[in-house]
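Re: the multi-chain job from yesterday

Posting the exact lines I submitted so nobody has to dig through the queue logs.
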Amino acid sequence: MPGATHSSSPSGRRLGARGYGGRGGGRVPYVEAPPEWRGTTVQVCGLWPFGVGFSTPAIGVPLGRELTGGATLCCDPISWFARAGLIHNPSELVLGKPGLGKSTLVRRQVVGLAGYGVIPLVLGDLKPDYTDLIAAMGGQIIKLGRGLGALNVLDPGEVGAAAARLSGLDRERLLADAHGRRLNAVAALITIVRGRPVADTERTVLSAALRVLDERHHGVPILPDLIQVIDAGPDPVRAVTLARGSDERYRQVVDPLHASLLGLLDGPLGDTFARATTTPIRLDNPAGACIDISGIDEADQELQAAVLLACWSEGFGAIEAAHALADARLAPQRRFWVVLDELWRVLRAGRGLVDRVDALTRLNRQRGVGQAMITHTMSDLLALTEEADRLKARGFAERAGMIICGGLPEAELATLTQVVRMSAHEQRMIVDWSTPPSWDGARDRDGEPPGRGNFLVKVGGRPGIPVHVDLTPAELAVNDTNKRWSLPTTR
Ligand SMILES: Nc1ncnc2c1ncn2[C@@H]1O[C@H](COP(=O)(O)OP(=O)(O)OP(=O)(O)O)[C@@H](O)[C@H]1O
Ligand SMILES: [Mg+2]
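And the result, structure tokens for all chains:
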């Protein structure tokens, strides 16, 4: 035992820290780390003075047991950033082969963080992976898609309500922010429909038309109202086109924009953006909100991208409004946990999405937003068509406060180790976890993948912490993402 007094055996051998040396002594060449258990001072005070401090961080959402010593690991980016100071920004990138439990790990963090008062926001649940959980916690579920619900990008939503409660400079700032956000959202939707960015003059026309709408329109405007303003061409809008009194010149400038806006209302995006918002996001629900966009077909990439962008615009607008109210001491300070699952699909869905995620990864600290990004492999991130997008996507991994790796194929490690240093032992562990499940002839189902629920938590070049996520019975009830496979089929 460490610390035991060295004494001599009757045979004259010396007892060292690893037993009796010499022939027949049974000296242990390798001392294994002892198993660890965690308890409160109330429960284990009787063991004093044998208690020791934790070898793993104990601040944050309990994830599971460390794989070698059995110590509890508590880990979530917001607690590790704000309370423990272990990481430099409140975000994580979760990587791993499909079905190994990435979404499950993040769902655990959603539950735990909600318990700490952090509001979970899933602004675009593509599968859906989070709807059952958020509904079970009493959060808000919003369904969007063709024939399901509409989202009006011109609706100021929570920002309007917050601005009404503010005054002076705070109000001006929030309204200016809301104006920029609406302008960006409309421009982004047009970019998706056209497949190329909006021209500078068109952006200026849109901005002027939105200001006219703000001044002259009663109630919440919708996109057809914006089209009407551009069509009528009031003076403030004409002025920015340099038409100088010529109607023909004005039409020349605004016609392409007019056509694209009409395409937004009745084109590939259906009527999702043409009507008033069916259910606005509300951020005063402590169980958060989940926008379920799983009703949109995977092949319908344009609509998927457009809805994602519009959801983010609305969600971040609401976050900005909550902060403005908190700064003016009109509401409590809130923190948010934004989940971007299936990041590879998000990034490939359309132009402009990489830039939005990029902005998000840079600004999360200022916005009081913690963020989880989930994807299968680094190669997914690097498979984007444009070189500039690939570099940005690589930046997501480099800037993430922590990287959590589940089982990965060996080919992936070359790229991954460029972003995060890993020992040979850690690399082997991750590849082992990606072993496929065994054939199980005895049961009428396949065995479970051996690496399911195992993750390595890496922060920079520090040694990783391997952990197994154990689900509680309450979680199992809202955790089946293999639903379509677990129900009995008709033979
Ligand atoms: N730690 C765990 N213990 C038991 N079952 C688990 C665990 N983690 C995940 N599962 C189960 O495995 C299945 C797949 O999990 P999950 O959806 O989290 O995987 P994923 O890595 O997000 O997959 P994908 O990449 O396809 O999104 C689910 O049915 C889930 O209930
Ligand atoms: Mg998943």
